[in-house]
Amino acid sequence: MASTATDSRPDEPDPQRARPAGVPSPTEPGGGTVEQAKEVCLRLLAVRARSRAELARRLTDKGFAAEVSQQALDRLGEVGLVDDAAFARQWVRSRHAHSGRGRQALAHELRRKGVSADDVVPALDTVTAEDEQSRAAELVRRKLRTMAPGLDRDKKIRRLVGMLARRGYGQSVAYAVVTAELAATGFDDSVPEAGPPLD
């Protein structure tokens, strides 16, 4: 049966097939438009807050030209949708409260996300020394409930200090919190003033 005039050849692209949303057209100079780049950013920001550097990387991955990406991010910044200082503060509050991250871990995470030191430092300052000690104590108390009761004091200290260190707490803070919690739970009646035990 002969094909009709409306049939398209299999080796020709279907002109009715829409380009995936947010993907720059190869026929557009500069690799996409500013409006397309903004739409991509808005979809990403609808999922969670992101730093400017994170958004720029995603736009690059999608084929947008650097100049187009910069213009789109500048426009979103003008209306407050891209704000690294606000992003850093939100990240610190959330990660400290819900994941128990210490200041060292938070600083590392923000640097990985491309946030500048000018925005990282004020965000970290929102977590006081008292906040950090209180959150670390909560983590230690929770961990103590699941530790084997037969462990001796030194092994408990090493494991608990190690747990806090992996979450970004400094060694001096971690050791002070651990020994205080062990004493408070009645496991250890005498807290030495020396530093953490050496392996």
Structure, explained:
The protein is mainly α. Helix content is 58%, strand content 0%. It has helices at residues 34-47, 52-61, 66-78, 84-99, 103-112, 117-124, 129-144, 153-166, 171-184. Helix 1 (34-47) packs across helix 3, helix 2 (52-61) runs antiparallel to helix 3 and helix 8 (153-166) crosses helix 9 (171-184). The model is unreliable at 1-20, 25-29 and 189-195 (pLDDT under 50).
Provide a quick synopsis of the model.
The protein has helices spanning 34-47, 52-61, 66-78, 84-99, 103-112, 117-124, 129-144, 153-166, 171-184. With 199 residues, the protein is mostly helical. α5 (103-112) runs antiparallel to α6.
Please tag this protein with its features.
single chain; 199 residues; disordered N terminus
What's the overall geometry? elongated
The rounded distance between the terminal residues' Cα atoms is 84 Å
Structural class: mainly alpha
Count of helical stretches: 9
Roughly what fraction of the amino acids lie in strands?
under 5%
